[in-house]
Each structure stands twice: as structure tokens, then as C-alpha cells.
Known about the structure:
The structure holds two protein chains of two kinds.
Chain A: H1 2-17, H2 19-55, E1 58-63, H3 72-80, E2 85-91, H4 93-103, H5 108-111, E3 121-126, H6 133-144, E4 149-153, H7 156-198, H8 200-208, H9 213-250, H10 266-291
Antiparallel strand pairs in A: 1-3, 1-4, 2-3
Helix pairs in contact in A: 1-9, 2-7, 2-9, 7-10, 9-10
Chain B: H1 5-13, E1 17-28, E2 31-42, E3 46-50, H2 57-64, E4 72-77, E5 80-81, H3 90-94, E6 97-101, H4 112-122, H5 127-140, H6 156-169, E7 174-178, H7 186-201, E8 205-210, H8 213-216, E9 222-227, E10 230-233
Amino acid sequence: MNYVIHFFRGVGKDFIATPMLHTVTILTIALSLLVSSAFGLFFSNINQIFYTWKQGIRIMAYVSSSVENIDVDIIKNQIQALYGVNKIDYISSEDALLYMKEEMQQAEILSHLKENPLPASFMIYVKPTNNTWETIERIATQIKMMPEITEVEYGKGWLERISSFMAFFRITCIAIGVLLLITTLFVISNTIRLVFYARRDEIDVMRLMGATRWFIKIPFYLEAICQGLIGGIIGIIVLFGLFYYLTIYNFPAWTTDLFHPHFFSLHIIIMLIFMSMGIGWVGCYISLKQFIKL
Amino acid sequence: MWVNENYLEMLETVNDHIIQMFHVYKQFGKKDVIRNVTMNIQRNEFLFISGPSGAGKSTMLKLLYAGERLSKGQIIVDGLNIVRMNKRNIHRLRRRIGIIFQDFKLIQTRSVYDNVALVLEIRGLPRKMIERKVRAALTRVGMIEFVSAFPPSLSGGEQQRVAVARAVAAEPSIIFADEPTGSLDPDAAAVILSLLDDYHLSGGTVLFATHDLSLIEHTQRRVVSLMDGNISDNGRPPYLAGQRQIG
């Protein structure tokens, strides 16, 4: 307990003695956490949009025009039997034309048609739990093999493009996060090194007076962890401020029925702050490993 | 059975002395700085180690407080065999001793109080006890009124008195003083000597390394003279030959 009081007093005194050095380190940690968390938050929100969009994905199966009388129930049952299918709606060619007329602004053009060019179709909804790229593709392939079906559409091109964009964005986020992590570690270990040099005489005296290596090291670790804690809290507060400003205060229209911008949950915030403290610890470890070989 | 002669010699004397040195050598490169020094120091002895600059006085003290590793030989300080001690355990030795340096080695950014308190914090004493011991030590050296001052604002003599307070605060069994009066005027040097005398009279052992003959020419204490890393006379140095020796 006596040691704990001594260590915390030492850290407090050191913060007061070299405020500039510690402020720069704390701000660097805060900035690194802010930038990488901002990417993470952006990714998380984009991912939500993608997820919502994916939830609405339907497979359209068009009935071949050569088939005159189809038994809708039989085909429905065949499709329903496929793994992952949630619901099926049948749209007759008449319904399709009606729907098209409602949607089009110049619907009178359609009234000049001699015969209905639109095929009958099945609209297939995939179960949300099975709404993966592989499942959709598999269901579509199986439906296409049915003799009554001539064509299947499920937004393959879009889905592929957005999936690859998301994969690229995820990799970019991770790369930026790793780069910032390395930069932060470098800054922290350099700060500890500078503090170590500034206190070299003091450390020599402490060693001569009988201090153990841990008695010397612990204040440095505590200092780095405190820097991580303060930097982490500042980073999160600033990020929340920016998020609030952009989404709620300044651009409330961003919130729609399909998309609600969300901030990190409490447990992710706590995890980020712990991560920030961990970065401080590792930065200190790297520095002291090189310098304190007592 | 093969038995090391040094070991037998060591056993004969192990219980009578607080410091034992057996055929100690220290080399820097190819140069012998300490050569075949064998010496015993009794508990509660005040010993002067004299000799000209470069004779090996500081190196000998460094060997005793494990500031340097010896090249050959054995050293036992207050029951601890320094040769067998690894770097992680040096603090066990350092907590039994107090060290005073010519350049004081006070932490310039800490107050007088904090400088003295440091040795007690290192030992993990409770704050109340630290405060009591620091005040007692500073009162003993006459520096209690400077408790909140910082070293740069003190004279050399005052700084060395603080260093003495720091050395005695934890009540060590031995004090190593490496040229403690080397940078002080005669009056300040006399004060430091008398403070170490007080510590000695209260039961402590003092090893006082100095090249200042004025400090030792009238002393009744044992003086060991070093010349080129070797003890030239395990008693009075040649330039004080003829005077009475005690110890």
C-alpha cells in the first residue's frame, strides 16, 4: 500500500513536472484513437446500411413464355422446399403490367400495347438468418434449373460490387488502424524514453539507494497507462461530439426508416479505452526493455 | 577433498567482521585498478581509506556496494557474498548500506524532504514513519529548516549535510563515504566529518575514502592507504608512519 501511494504520487508529480511532454503524448493517443475509431464507426454504419439492404434482397424468377398453363402452387411448393427460402409471392403477367402502370409516369404509352409483354414471375424472399451471398446464389441456381423458369434475377452485379467494396473498406480500416497503432506506439515509447533520459540521474540514485527494478519501472508503466486512459477518453468524447454534430444536430435527415446512425455501444467504448491503455503499456514496455537492464 | 584456501581463510574470519575482502582484483581492460587486496573491517569501525587520486579508493568502495563487479576474489558485506549476488538482488545489499558521494547525488528536482524520504519509500515504510524519520535525520544534520528547499538553492556544505541525512535516515549498518569532503571548504568538511563521527558513535560502521591528508593526520582511527590498487600499509600510510594506530 505504501508503495502504491508512492507510485501514484510519483506519476502525479511527473505529470506536473513535464506537462508539455505528457500533453503531446495524450493528444497523440487521442488523435490516433479518434481517427481509427472514426473509420470503425463509419464502417459499422455502412455495414448496417449494407445489412439492411441485404435484408430486402429478393430473387425474381421469371416464368417462361412458352409455358401456357402453369400450376402456381406446385412451383411454389418446389421453391419453398429449397433451403433458406422464407416466402414466395406469385405475380401474374397482368399484375406485373398493372404494377408497371402504377409506377410509370407516362403510363398511357402502355395502353397502346397489343399484348402484355411482361412475363409472370415469382418473388422469393430469403430467410434473414440465411441471407448470405452463398445461400442467395445457391437458391437462384436451383430455381433456374426448373423447366418453367426462364430467367432469375437477384442483383448479382450490385451484390458482388458492394461486397467487394465492403471487403476493401474493411481492409483499409484495418490497415489504417494498424498504421496508427504503430505510430502511437512509437510516440509513446519515445516519450517514455525522453522521460527516462530526463530522470536518468534520479534513476541512478534510486538504484544506489536500493530500489528494485520494479520500483523504478512501475511509475513509467503507470504513467503510460494513465496517458492511454486520458487519451482514450478524450478521443471517444471528441468522436462522440463529431458524431452528434453530424448526425443529430446538423444533418438529422440522415436518419431514415432504413438507417439509424449509431454510436459505439458502451462495451465497445470501454474496450476502446482499455485498448488505448494497452497501447500505453506496450509503448512503455518497448521503451523500458531497451533501457532498463538493471 | 579439494578445498579452496580462500574459502578456509574466509571461514576463519567470517563472524568477526562486517566487511571481508579476500584477494580482490579489479581490472579495467588490462589494467589492474585493485590488486590482491585482502582486508577485514570490524563492525562499528571508522576506517579511512586514503591515497592519491587514481589509487583505487573509489573503485574499492564501488566494489563494496556492488557499483562495479570484481574481476577476482571474494567480498562479503554484512553477511552478503557480493560475488554470488546477481543484479536482481543488489537491492538487498544497498538497503543495508548508506552511500555518500563527492558530488552529493541529490535529485535536483525534488525537495530536501523528498530526497531524504526516497530511501525510506524505496524500503516501503508507511508515510507517517517516513515523515518522522526524515525530520529526525534532518534535525541530526542541522538541516530541518531547509526541509522544503530544493538542492540548487543550497550551498555545497548544506547539500552534503542533506546527503548525510539521506544516508543515515534508513539506519544502515554501514556508510560508504566516497570523498564526501572533496568539494567542500575546511569548515564544511569538518561538519561532515563530525556528523559521520556521530553516526559511528551511535553504532554504525563508516568507510571514509579521502585523499585529504588534513582529515587523517590527527585521527586516532585506522587508516588504510592505497597505492596503485594495492594496500601499501594495512594501517598507517607511509607519510603518517610513526604515529599511533588504533584498530
